[in-house]
Amino acid sequence: MNHYPHHIGDFNNATRHLTRVERSLYRDLIDLYYDTERPLNSDFNRLARRVLAHSEEERAALQCVLEEFFFLEDDGWHNSRCDAEIEKYQGSIEQASKAGKASAVKRALAKATTVERPLNARSTTDEPPLNDRATNQNQNQNQNQNQNQGNTPLTPQGGAPDGAGGMTFPPLADDPILDADEPLTPIDELPPSAGSACTTAGAVCLALKAVGISNTNPGNQKLRALIATGADLQEFVGAGQKAVSAGNGRFAYVLGIVSGERERAAELATRIHRGNLADPQPGVTGQRPHVNKQVALEQSNKTVAVAWAAQQRALMQGVAA
Fold first, then answer.
1. What's the average model confidence in pLDDT over 310-314?
2. Taking the mean position of all CA atoms in its chain, how far away is CA 116?
3. Is 224 within 8 Å of 119 (Cβ atoms)?
4. What is the spatial distance between Cα 212 and Cα 100, in angstroms, rounded to a whole number?
5. Which of 39, 104, 186, 214 has CB 3.0 to 4.6 Å from 210, enough for a Cys bridge?
6. Backbone φ and ψ of 76, nearest 5°
């Protein structure tokens, strides 16, 4: 802790009976307690050295302060007020950390759902006006330079060849979030829907990095396969949070969680009974029919009602005859 609340009135009321040396040592002990965020050392000699209590008078004063304002536990000398303030401070730090991670995930989710702007969406159809103060000579020079640049072929790296006129551009830098160990699928081998899958894969990697997953790779084949089967961003983020809680922040471990959950869900879907519970599952032999009491009662009531109606019709026909 870099700072802590110091209430002057409380301190004076609690230490008014102490000597000048005892008050000074008490303040030094409190500073040491907050600075280390832990109880004071139970070894008296080491503690005395930390607070510069060297003379007999200072060591005796230190012993009096410890016995009056602190209590000894297995892990050292405790002070109730200090323990409460440290617990409050550490709780606020943890809450701020969680809020920061949640904000990063929210930004990643928002980025994933944002529709990409069409190419050159911000450009206008209006051409900028020519510089009225430009001379004819400068205009001619600019036209010549533009013609030279228009005739200069570009290299595969995006710049002009050595010795040619025009501007040269540095080669594109590697994407820092790509993993060199994971091979990427060539563009000509990607399916028609791979463009959207690549965009989703990048958003998934950004969101996983926000929750603490390392070595993410949007070109991972298993990641793209899971996205193709319908795995969404929330699903990957939930798996990432589980992995971090388990102490395993590897990207492959997260993909294993998503894959395993989807396999278990698919298996469960094939085992769940479909249709009326009174009917056995089709294609499964050796099943005992499940008796639904409600269905059986309704069927019994229906049979009794039909028999009673038939009996009433017979009686009416006899009376009419």
1. 80
2. 23
3. no
4. 12
5. 104
6. 135, -170
